[in-house]
Amino acid sequence: MASLPETEVKTLTLTIDGQEVTVEPGTTVLEAAQSVGIDIPTLCHDPRLEPFGACRLCLVEVEGGRAPMPSCALKCGDGMVVHTRTERIMKLRKFVIELLLSYHPLDCPVCEAAGDCRLQDYAYEYGVAVSPWGWHPLEFDTRDDHPNIARDPNRCILCGRCVRICREVMGIGCWGFRSRGYDTIIDTAYNMPLEAVDCVSCGQCVSTCPVGALNMKRSRFGARNWQTEKTMTVCDYCAVGCEQEIQTFRGELVRVKAPTGEGVNAGNLCVKGRFGMEYVNSNERLIAPLVRGEDGLLAPTTWDDALARVAEGLKKAKAAKGVGVIASARCTNEENYLLQKLARTVLGTNNIDSGARYNQAAAVATVGKVLGYPAMTNSVADIVEAEVLLIAGSNTTEEHPVLALQLVKAAREGKELIVVDPRRTDIARRASIHLAVKPGSDAVLFAAMLKHIVDSGLHNKDFIAAHADGFEELVESVKAVTIEAAADACGVPAADIKSAAELYAKAAAASIFYSAGLTQQHNGAAAVTALADLAVVTGNIGRAGTGVNGLAGQANAQGACDMGCLPDYLPGYVALDDAEAVKTVEAVMGRVSDKIPGQIIGSMLQGIVDGQIKALYIVGENPAISEPGAAVVKEALEKAEFLVVQDIFLSETARYADVVLPACAITERDGTLTSTERRVQRVRKTMDCLEGAKADWEIVLAIANELGAGWTYTSPAEIMAEIALAVPTYAGISYERLEQGGIQWPCVDAEDDGTPILYTEGFPGGRASLAAIEVSDASVADIAAGNGFSLLLTTGIEREHFGTGTRSRRAAGLTGLVNEGRLEINPTDATALGVAPGDRIRVTSVSGSIEPVAVVTAGVPQGLVFMPQHYVEAPATALFPAQVDPVTAVPLLKAVAVKVEKA
Amino acid sequence: MTVVQSPDGAVVEATFDYGPLEELLEKYQGMKGALIPLLQGTQAAYGYLPKEAMIRLAEALGEPLSSVFGVATFYAQFRLVPRAKNVVRICHGTACHVSGSPLVGLEVEKHLGIQEGENTEDMMFTLEGVACLGACGMAPVMMINEHTYGKLSPDKAVSSIKEFAAAEGNGGSETAEAPADAATEGEEA
């Protein structure tokens, strides 16, 4: 019988231990065996890594083969007959384990890995008690120089997983093999401390170590793996949506893990996800409602008293048409839905905004307008398909570390990265082209790229004709643009602009990523809109490895917007003036009394100062630190007639409150978060709610009922059922379905598996609406002008912290790494100002002054300084005037003129 | 003294002469598998592998420093520390081992006050342990620079070093004269 030509072979069938297995070509024998539940032992294999074949435990026999072969590196062949547990194989495996035990310290009783150690498992399984060659334990020094990672090289079995994960997955390479033979040890170069060798403290090496050589340091509530309760949930820091396994013991958080292969993160976590959850056990948690007494001080009270006061205060302000509500982009969909329902149907106001205002809300007036949905178009999983990746205004490896692993991988595989960022960030270092544009000139750059693409005939004429309107207007809007003028305005070489444009336009699949670096920048809306135009004009949309992917900041920034925590949109982005659609939402949610758009966070605060807003109800946000215009913010919070703050900690904002309501941490409640890739995922209660605190949804419910709403929700699942009715893109989502894993919206009915890639079947409006690129004249030169403030300050996110630090600054695993506001300054500027690394310096703008510590680095160009946003004792936002993008109303936090001097 | 900026922007005052290394990097630019010849060339140029050179090599090759360091520590031919003026090699081959080289080694370490792989403080001696010097017939064997001393006892080894040092100290030439009985033989045990 003639065999089929190889190209036609779609699957292979082989026999493993008498069982027939059908697999895709390229599958290894180990994977094939695992897929049918045949367990092959392995110490050096991790699905996140390339096969290594070092431990020789996964040996199998193949009929007709000469010698046993490592199944982790052996590709399946059609008709292959494999035996995994022959006498010969079992003997070989036992031999390997005996060799390992001949030098292993056997200190299992005190080893952190006991109970979660592959060597322990296999020694038990294969009945290896004592090595026939005696016992010669190693005598290397242990190292204890990292706050979170403990290291005992004597327990190391030299599988090299830590070495490989740091190189292959993280793209760093802290660890290496040192010396040879008996002296071989895993070590950093020159035995340097981890902190000195580019370590990002992600703990990925710990996560892959099969034994106890690399450990998470024992937590305050240390407990063995078998003692802990384990619950799968989702990380509540950034919006990548990593799945976490939270381990608790007697109600306290012991450790966080990520099961290999599960979720968008596939077992990977970043420093915050792995070492930053300890805040939930902080003894600074609020445990009783607080009310401001006649002495002006906050004092504990009962829930009944607190709720009655809240209801009274809100009722009074409602009568004066002066209520504002600020929702949290880190609360769940259910909580955000209820909160906006409270605002709209009970308090009678559209003054509802959320922390998504700081970035994600920009999508509504930009990509949403051009394409249809205000969301990331593609998924983390299909980044691998992109040939060219244009990354603008995103310090991805620090802001979205686990998503960034895909970008790092792409760079390692030789894909072209084009990074647009004034700073030489880690991802910029990995780029083929780094366009270090002057702050605020991004839109000019993209306009020039677009012009060059059209002038060179590289635009996708067929795609535009078939799917897009407004091309002529778009071309007209960039008519006056010249590459040379743009190069001058952006401060980058004209040749680089051309190369970037050509690379992007010529790629079979090119993907765009952007984040707060654009949305909070001057001309941010224009820049983001131009990116959407670029994608449509080149046809880079609706396919794997393409799209315009705005990376949301906070864990549920996407969800907060989806749920209608926007002053101008009801749930599902129903515009208030769309009478027909409003009726549909009202049928589910109840009557929306006011059809006039409300105020954003900044306007609500200004409204208090101006006397229109009387009462403000803030849930889980910290505008005292996060909002620009410090003077106005302070005045507003002091002046508010009635301020309610609901949080898990007494945040800087809560200190101004009349009533403080203690909420549950994310680990203490059920709900869903919608990640940046539109994936709706369950967060699960992993521990009892701290006594005295309540889940946010319960508090909102109680307030609504105190105001006479008569709501009857008994669980977040019930609220989700209502969301599914109100929001068409969530229509097919239910808690029952979410037990099988997250679902990416749109998910229109119970049969719909969700939508990993948007616009595969065209655009929801029929056609994309290309938008003209309009760059305002408020150029960078203006930002920098005046008062002798010769430097430009930009802000951003630091790997180890998040937001205003409410959570991350209360996690010892993070504060042990970085706990001080540091200003990055270029060596030349530092020398000119007489500033040395570590100096305390004063940074002053027209709005304020802070005193961080100087870090001297060429990572920032001359003339620019950088400061992370997380430090209440040196809040970078205090240096910014209250100013928002005119189109998206996102606060501008990326460029302000400052002067720097030694403090 | 020149001021340079390292890739992470730290400004360091460098006394290190990168000249020879840059020449090598130019020679091997774009060549695959060039790490070993580069390390060999670097060692030939500097006498050992200086840390500054290793850092530069890793950066130029786009490899983690840990990886370059791993290769440099894997091969016995590479040295991470400069050698002293004279090198004492103690043979630990099978024949030498069974005829007492461990004791010879210990006594020499004690005398010089250093361990194998280290230099004396006055940079007079580097002590190295080697697998086989190929003079098994004279086991246990040690070499000082190019000269072989055989049939050693711990005392004899130490006195040989003392004599050598005395000759050096008395203005002896850089490479001391070979003792009469130091004929090398290539006989395997």
Please tell me about this protein's structure.
- The complex is a heterodimer of chains A (903) and B (189).
- Chain A has 903 residues and is α/β, with parallel strands linked by helices.
- In chain A, helix 14 (442-455) runs antiparallel to helix 17, helix 14 (442-455) runs parallel beside helix 20 (524-537) and helix 23 (601-610) packs across helix 25 (630-639).
- The model of chain A has no long low-confidence stretch (mean pLDDT 94).
- Chain B is α+β, with helices and mostly antiparallel strands.
- Helix content of chain B is 40%, strand content 14%.
- In chain B, the strands form two sheets. Chain B has a four-stranded mixed β-sheet with strand order 4-3-5-6, with helices on one face.
- In chain B, a hairpin with a 2-residue loop joins strand 5 and strand 6 (147-149).
- At the A-B interface, helix 4 and strand 7 of A face helix 4 of B.
Give the arrangement of secondary structure elements.
The complex is a heterodimer of chains A (903) and B (189).
Chain A: E1 12-16, E2 19-23, H1 29-35, E3 59-62, E4 69-70, E5 81-83, H2 87-101, H3 118-125, E6 149-151, H4 161-169, E7 175-178, E8 185-188, H5 204-208, E9 214-216, E10 229-234, E11 243-249, E12 252-257, H6 271-275, E13 290-292, E14 298-300, H7 303-319, E15 323-327, H8 333-346, E16 352-354, H9 362-365, H10 367-371, E17 388-392, H11 396-399, H12 401-412, E18 416-420, H13 426-429, E19 433-435, H14 442-455, H15 461-467, E20 468-469, H16 471-477, H17 483-490, H18 494-506, E21 510-514, H19 516-519, H20 524-537, E22 548-550, H21 557-562, E23 569-570, E24 574-575, H22 579-589, H23 601-610, E25 615-619, H24 623-626, H25 630-639, E26 642-647, E27 659-662, E28 671-674, E29 679-683, H26 696-706, H27 716-726, H28 735-738, E30 743-744, E31 768-769, H29 780-784, E32 791-796, H30 812-815, E33 822-825, H31 827-833, E34 841-844, E35 849-850, E36 853-856, E37 864-868, E38 896-902
Helix pairs in contact in A: 7-26, 8-26, 8-27, 14-17, 14-18, 14-20, 23-25
Chain B: E1 2-5, E2 11-14, H1 19-27, H2 35-46, H3 51-61, H4 65-74, E3 86-91, H5 94-98, H6 101-112, E4 125-130, E5 142-144, E6 147-149, H7 154-169
Parallel strand pairs in B: 3-4
Antiparallel strand pairs in B: 1-2, 3-5, 5-6
Helix pairs in contact in B: 1-2, 2-3, 3-4, 6-7
